[in-house]
Design goal:
- By secondary structure, the protein is α/β, with parallel strands linked by helices.
- It has seven domains: 248 residues, no CATH class; 107 residues, no CATH class; 101 residues, no CATH class; 221 residues, Tandem AAA-ATPase domain (Rossmann fold, 3-Layer(aba) Sandwich), CATH 3.40.50.10810; 206 residues, Homing endonucleases (Endonuclease I-creI), CATH 3.10.28; 96 residues, no CATH class; 243 residues, P-loop containing nucleotide triphosphate hydrolases (Rossmann fold), CATH 3.40.50.
- Helix content is 39%, strand content 22%.
- It is built from 53 helices and 53 strands.
- Strands 24, 25, 26, 27, 28, 31 and 40 form a seven-stranded antiparallel sheet that branches. Strands 1, 2, 3, 4, 5 and 6 form a six-stranded mixed sheet that branches. Strands 21-47-46-43-45-44 form a six-stranded parallel sheet, with helices on both faces.
- A hairpin with a 4-residue loop joins strand 27 and strand 28.
- The radius of gyration is 39 Å and the shape is flat.
- The relative contact order is 0.07.
- It holds the Pfam family LAGLIDADG_3.
């Protein structure tokens, strides 16, 4: 056995080994003697590969030689290491030099070897027994020590604790990375130096351990960074020797070439000096203690006597504050960087007091730090004129400047800053209140429209408390930027006050339309809209969530069909808007799907057939309708459809459809290899129902079972075809060759060929089996056999990429399909034991699709992917191959129902199936339901019968675990779970859990339970969308009408818009006798469809078709319209008959495919807009196709004047949004149009519907023990204060508690404001680091929002260092020019990829569409504010899906407020700007429940 030791010398790792076999003591009398136990360098190099490929690679790069070590021992022999097991007695032991054989590894190879030592030198605990080769070599203590050093270096690099340097070396100048060792890292360095085995520093001479360690860490750090950053930091051409040195140095920081030859000393010093200063400053700013600043406001003024009822006197408050020691004070202190609780104010320091961890001269540390801080905030110089500076007094202007400007600079520079709790949080806003008015004598059918008058009041507000005009005037007179108002300090300026004074002048009466305009405007930048309070129907309308508030309208009795739940909600919304007399946009498409490309494979009559071939072969009795064609199938066509119970059933095609289009299609690819190209109007079945909102990451249902009953096929022919297609080669002359290594297989096929010839009367011409190279070959030449197959649809002579399974095999009975699959997989498939799967490859995409469908006959999921592989025909040409994989539960189904005919493969499959299956392969998406169940019940996760991994989406529910969760919910519903819980031993959580059971919302839980059952029992697999690609297309698209189920596997046929619009008319006529006629205008191609759908679904409606040369005119038309319920016409006819149609007072005008009126100047758009109607409805899937003027035209039809004139719209919205990406204009436009647009299902599509969708998700984080301790301390402290206070003081304490607890959830340093280290102390921060690394690895960009500027100032340098990437930071202290430069840099350049933004500062016109990820680190509990921030990325100009993540600490107030808002989201979003003030109204008991810390909060 070899014991391998290590040392570090001259920038290299030195490896040498002792041979435990021992050797005779040395008889040499030389001063430096050979080590008697040292193994030869060759033996060491030969042993290293036993530690794996990395060690083998390192051994290959090593240089062999000799080295002299100072080792303990006697004159005749060194002492062997204890690991060898050898014993040598040394009489006069001492340190003597010994020569050993060694291997020398440079830093890069050393880093790779040391990084893999744990995996190599210590067998995995999961291994049943150690590998044999590991017993021959053993890592000695010195090598294990250097491995620990390498691990520490990797951690430094991961956390960004490195800096680039320009250094002088023996060979010249070089670019190097060096570690930054401060704080705990410096302590770790000292620990490592103390623990260093002496042999590590015993090369040639004994050196101090710290010197050797820093040399090793420097070299290993440089190697680790280069391995982590293999790419160049600068793009373009590689700079040459004449290029600027800075460019050469930057390029030399990556890759293997660090040397920079040919550098002059003066230019080297010019570059090295600022880098050394940077390195030195990094160590100075993060020492064991740091200077901290605390801003203290003037002392509190006594509040007015509550018994007198006097209102606060603002001038009196201000004067008292100024007179009563009213100066602001900036206090100085020293604070420990390790323990934030150690805080020493300057007066105590000068008085001689101390605290643990202070350096020898703390006074010098304070003075030095103050001197550096004075460069950023010169006012500190006033204090430095004193011998013992302790504070500096500030007037109100200087205090305001410190808050807005100096504090962020000091924090970002590494100083501690403590600000008052109100800083940055309190400012004036605008509150709008509207109340309905009762008008005597109003007509009953007047309707609540845009002209209805309401009482309106605008008033400035501080939080939710209004401020009077007199108070505003007094504030304006004082002209101070900081003032105490209602007991709170408020930051304000002259512009805010002017805006507030103007706002109060506008109270009085307004129309609904004018109120909407006020809400749309959103206030000014100086006085933003913070609250809206409206009652009645106006309140419902302004909420933008009217469809969610309304009670769904049941399917009318006269409607021949059943509306789905979301359609019933749509019907309720349409009825609501109609009653208000307001126009609406149903942002969904009209007509049939028109979905599939010509080559889309459709399952019909048991086989896959291209959509165009179905039309070509079966279309008859064709009816053309203005670009579209309907046809009746020539013969019966059957597909598979999913029924209402989620079961796959056979269903017939009743009609075929095709249409010529010129538009953009979507190519949707799933992670199981499925692919389909469809129109934007086509729906696929998602987890929550049929949807056209298909985005990457979504789950789409693919059938678990395909049902077909076919005829049997001759078994011999079936087996021969399986081998012929898989291993055969056919030429055009009816020659067939099948190759195989196993001759027995070919002999059996030979016999089958003879039987086929006899059975079917074919001349097969004596087939032969002969050897060919390393294989055997079955050769058959039979024109009869080729003709026999061709007559049955087989394509003879196709190459491998074009091969297909013949339809008569694919559509055969189950036994035939099973036999074919068994032989085909025996020929082409292989069992990959390490991956626990079966793998099969084919160059033919179509053939792989056929195999997938055939396997679904037995419920087996074949997942495919594409890889480049070398052809197997000997040419070596690389081409794309389809790789099919069967894993998870499908593996056992394959074994039980299909299997291999090869006993070797079958035995291997049996062995794999004996191991546990991967449930994630065929999982049931249920994490969202489990989280919903937990939120609605308040019960701990463990009560739901499954592990916590199922709540976090890290593990998919299997059908078995889904059943366990359902059983657990059943026990909750029955009360059994509660009874069992009460029998358990009592603990601190027993009472809370028991209370949750008593308050159990059984209806909500039952709904979740039923949804989970439906998902688990639905006969589908849930595949994930991997890409949605837009492609331009001109040509035919196809669709197929399926009776009863209205769907086939590719999408839905039932036109949801048609059903809802028709059901609206039916519902109105059931409620009222005199309704009036509805005029529906549509493209001519849809006219017949509307007529047929009305006859089918609403036969009770009187429908008149006003079209063609025979249409009615004058009195006849008037008479017919007078009795009609629905009048159908086209856009062209509406233009021609404009005057005739304008004579009628229509109850409603509906524009289907309303994009037809998107051009406001077009004559048909003008004609339709000119027709009078009580209400208007636009049906369109694309209200914005090219530019926003199209939106104005459609909205002008629905609600004339809502968005102003076309010119005003262009100035207010179109130009700011399209040219400048103005965020304020975008938000105002969404506010104006949102209430008038139906939001479908869970997607909440806004009016800008052509934006790619955003995917919102919640990221659950846990607290560290330190966070949990601080959280509990804050709760106890603040609840005592809250319980002992009332009124405004209580409200202030509640909001202060909210703030402090949210800061704890962010990071302990955020609450303490002590500048302490960030790493390893926050669950949120750890998750943010992981997420940022994932985003960067994908090459994406991200916006990271925080509502706290102070926290952002902490995050920016930390993330930049950890990620080793630039991180931008935008906050309110930056001037506009700087902000614009940051935005331009982020939008235009590849780096930086992470943009950190203050939630408040980011709300002024930013366009950040370069990002496709948005992260809300801390929550602002008004969804509108968060969405406004999210819309920096999710806005016009965005071409990719936007992923939005909201961090929430589980088991804390963050989770409970999130639950409350989710339960009442419509109410929470109806009032813009309410923020968190509503929480202040909760009782003390409710607050204690809100703030409490649950056990699952702590990691």
């Amino acid at each position: 056995m070899l014991v391998i030791h290590a040392a570090w010398d001259a920038g290299r790792l030195v490896l040498w080994a002792e041979d435990a076999a021992g050797a005779a003591p040395s008889t040499s009398r030389a001063k430096v003697r050979p080590h008697p136990f040292a193994a030869p360098a060759g033996a060491l190099a030969a042993a290293l590969p036993g530690w794996g490929d990395t060690a083998a690679e390192a051994a290959g790069k090593a240089v062999s030689g000799e080295v002299v070590l100072l080792l303990p021992g006697s004159a005749s022999s060194p002492l062997p290491s204890p690991e060898t097991g050898l014993r040598v007695v040394a009489r006069r032991a001492g340190i003597r030099p010994w020569r050993v054989f060694a291997l020398f590894l440079d830093a890069s190879a050393a880093m790779r070897l040391l990084s893999t030592l744990d995996e190599a030198g210590r067998p995995s605990a999961q291994s049943p027994e150690p590998a044999d080769h590991l017993t021959d070599i053993l890592a000695g203590p010195s090598l294990r020590f250097l491995s620990a050093v390498a691990a520490h270096v990797r951690d430094l690099v991961r956390r960004g604790r490195v800096l680039p340097q320009f250094v002088s070396e023996a060979a010249g100048y070089a670019a190097r990375w060096r570690p930054v060792l401060t704080g705990p890292d410096a302590a770790r360095f000292r620990e490592l130096a103390a623990a260093m085995p002496p042999v590590c520093r015993a090369v040639s001479e004994e050196r101090p351990s710290a010197h050797v360690l820093i040399e090793a860490m420097a070299a290993l750090t440089d190697a680790a960074v280069r391995q982590a950053l293999p790419e160049r930091l600068l793009g373009g051409h590689r700079p040459g020797r004449r290029s600027p040195l800075a460019d050469r140095w930057t390029v030399a920081l990556t890759g293997d070439a660090a040397a920079l030859p040919g550098v002059r000393q003066e230019e080297a010093e010019a570059l090295a000096r600022p880098l050394r200063d940077w390195f030195r400053a990094a160590h100075q700013l993060d020492g064991p203690v740091k200077v901290s600043f605390r801003l203290v406001e003037p002392r509190q003024v006594e509040p007015p006597d509550p018994w007198t009822g006097a209102s606060p006197d603002i001038a009196g408050e201000y004067a008292a504050a100024q007179a009563d020691g009213g100066a602001w004070r900036l206090e100085f202190a020293l604070q420990s960087a390790e323990d934030p609780s150690l805080y020493l104010p300057a007066p105590l320091l000068w008085a001689g007091e101390t605290m643990p961890g202070l350096p020898g001269r703390p006074d010098e540390v304070l003075l030095t730090g103050l001197g550096r801080a004075a460069r950023l905030y010169p006012k500190i110089n006033d204090a430095l004129r004193q011998a013992r500076p302790a504070h500096v007094d500030l007037d109100v202007e200087n205090a305001f400047h410190f808050l807005r400007h100096a504090a962020p600079l000091l924090q970002s520079a590494g100083f501690g800053v403590r600000l008052p709790a109100w800083a940055g949080r309190t400012r004036l806003g605008l509150k709008l209140t509207a109340r309905s008015r009762s008008v005597p004598g109003a007509a009953a059918d007047q309707g609540f429209g845009l002209e209805q008058l309401v009482d309106f009041r605008a008033e400035p507000a501080l939080g939710d408390e209004a401020i009077s005009e007199e108070e505003l005037a007094e504030l304006a007179r004082l002209k101070v930027p900081l003032i105490r108002l209602r007991g709170q300090w408020v930051e304000l300026d002259a512009r805010q006050l002017d805006a507030a004074l103007k706002a109060v002048e506008r109270s009085g009466r307004m129309t609904v339309g004018e109120v909407i305009q006020e809400v749309v405007h959103g206030g000014d930048d100086d006085l933003p809209l913070v609250a809206v309070d409206a009652d009645g129907l106006l309140g419902d309308l302004l909420s933008g969530e009217a469809d969610r508030r309304l009670e769904p309208v049941a399917t009318p009795a006269a409607f021949h069909g059943t509306l789905r739940p979301y359609q019933e909600r749509g019907l309720a919304w349409l009825d609501f808007m109609s009653q208000l007399g307001l126009g609406a946009i149903l942002a969904d498409d009209m007509g049939l799907g028109k979905c599939l490309m010509p080559d889309s494979p459709v399952f019909v009559n048991g086989v896959l057939t291209p959509a165009a071939d179905i039309w070509q072969n079966y279309a008859t009795d064709t009816l053309s309708e203005d670009g579209g064609e309907w046809a009746i199938p020539l013969s019966p066509l059957f597909t598979n459809a999913i029924d209402a119970k989620g079961r796959m059933v056979q269903a017939p095609f009743t009609r075929l459809y095709r249409q010529h289009v010129r538009e953009r299609l979507r190519r949707v690819r799933l992670d199981d290899g499925s692919e389909i190209t469809i129109t934007r109007r086509h729906r696929l079945l998602g987890v929550n129902g049929w949807t056209r909102d298909i985005q990457s990451g979504d789950r789409i249902c693919v059938p678990r079972r395909i049902r077909w009953e076919g005829e049997p096929v001759d078994p011999d022919l079936t087996v021969l075809l399986a081998w012929q297609i898989s291993e055969g080669h056919e030429n055009r002359k009816a020659d067939l060759r099948i190759t195989q290594k196993n001759r027995a297989v070919l002999d059996a096929l030979h016999e089958r060929v003879l039987r086929i010839g006899t059975r079917f009367g074919l001349i097969v011409n004596k087939p032969t089996v002969r050897p060919a190279r390393n294989v055997h070959e079955l050769r058959l030449c039979s024109v009869d056999y080729a003709a026999f197959l061709s007559a049955r649809g087989y394509k003879w002579g196709y190459l491998s990429a074009a091969k297909r399974i013949p339809d008569f095999i694919m559509a055969a009975d189950d036994d035939t399909v099973r036999l074919f699959l068994r032989e085909f997989f025996t020929a082409e498939g292989s069992v990959v034991a390490g991956m626990r799967m079966i793998e099969i490859a084919s160059a033919s995409r179509w053939l792989m699709s056929q195999l997938s469908i055939m396997l679904r006959r037995f419920g087996i999921w074949l997942r495919t992917t594409e890889k480049m592989k070398a052809a197997t025909n000997g040419t070596g040409i690389r081409r794309p191959y389809q790789i099919g994989m069967i894993g998870g539960p499908g593996l056992r189904l394959f074994r039980d129902l299909i299997g291999f005919s090869d006993p070797v493969k079958q035995a291997k499959l049996d062995g794999v199936c004996a191991k546990p299956a991967n449930s994630n392969v065929e999982g049931v998406p249920g994490s969202d339901l489990l989280l919903l169940a937990r939120a609605s019940t308040g019960l701990p996760m463990r009560h739901f019968g499954v592990g916590t991994v199922y709540f976090t989406e890290t593990q998919e529910l299997s059908p078995k675990s889904a059943a366990m969760a359902v059983q657990a919910m059943d026990r909750m519903l029955s009360g059994a779970a509660e009874r069992e819980h009460l029998k358990q031993p009592q603990n601190r959580w027993t009472g809370e859990v028991a209370a949750a059971y008593r308050a159990l919302d059984r209806d909500a839980l039952r709904a979740v339970r039923d949804e989970l059952v439906m998902r688990a029992e639905r006969e589908v697999f849930y595949a994930r969308v991997v890409s949605v690609e837009e492609i331009d297309y001109e040509g035919y698209v196809y669709d197929f009408e399926v009776a009863e189920h209205h769907n086939f596997v590719a999408g839905s046929i039932l036109c949801h818009n048609t059903a809802q619009t028709l059901s609206l008319l039916v519902n109105e006529r059931e409620q009222e006798e005199q309704v009036g006629a509805t005029l529906l205008v549509c493209p001519m191609s849809l006219l017949s469809n509307w007529q047929k759908e009305a006859a089918r679904f609403a036969p009770s409606l009187d429908v008149y078709l006003h079209h063609g040369t025979g249409r009615l005119r004058d009195e006849e038309l008037a008479e017919r319209v007078g009795v009609a319920d629905l009048v159908l016409t086209t856009y062209g006819t509406a233009l021609r008959d404009r005057d005739a149609l304008a004579r009628f007072g229509w109850a409603r005008i509906v524009c289907d495919e309303a994009q037809a009126i998107k051009n406001a100047a077009a004559r048909q758009a003008q004609a339709v807009r000119s027709l009078p109607a009580r209400t208007r409805l636009a049906l369109t899937g694309t209200p914005v196709e090219n530019h926003l003027a199209e939106l104005w035209s459609i909205m002008e039809f629905c609600n004339p004047g809502l968005l102003g004139s076309a010119r005003a719209f262009r100035d207010r919205y179109q130009e700011p949004i399209e040219r400048r990406g103005d965020e304020t204009a975008t938000t105002a436009l969404k506010r104006a149009t949102g209430p008038f647009v139906l939001r479908r299902l869970k997607t909440d599509k806004t009016i800008i519907s052509d934006l790619p969708d955003k995917m919102e998700m919640k990221v659950w984080c846990t607290l560290t023990p330190e966070q949990a301790s601080l959280y509990q301390a804050v709760v106890e402290d603040m609840m005592d204060r809250i319980a002992g206070s009332e009124g405004i003081e209580r409200r202030g304490n509640v909001l202060a508690a909210m703030t402090r607890l949210k800061q704890v959830c962010n990071h302990p340093a955020h609450l303490l404001k002590d500048g302490s280290r960030l790493a390893g102390r926050s669950g949120k921060l750890a998750r943010l680091e992981e997420l940022a690394e994932e985003i960067l690895s994908e090459g994406d960009k991200a916006l990271v929002f925080t509502q706290y500027a102070e926290f952002g100032s902490m995050l920016q340098p930390y993330l930049a260092a950890r990620l080793d990437r630039p991180v931008l930071w935008l906050h309110g202290g930056l001037p506009k020019k700087t902000r614009d430069a940051l935005v331009e840099r982020f939008q235009a350049e590849d780096e930086p990829m992470i943009f950190l933004l203050s939630l408040k500062a980011a709300g002024t016109g930013l366009n950040l569409t370069a990002a496709c990820h948005v992260v809300h680190v801390d929550r602002w509990w008004n969804p509108a504010v968060e969405n406004q921030a999210t819309d920096r990325a999710f806005r016009i100009g965005q071409t990719r899906n936007v992923q939005v993540r909201k961090f929430i600490c589980a088991g804390t107030l963050e989770e409970r407020i999130d639950e409350m808002i989710e339960r009442k989201r419509a109410l929470a979003e109806s009032v813009v700007g309410t923020g968190e003030d509503w929480i202040a109204g909760l009782s003390t008991a409710e607050l204690r429940e809100l703030f409490r810390l649950s056990p699952e909060a702590v990691s």
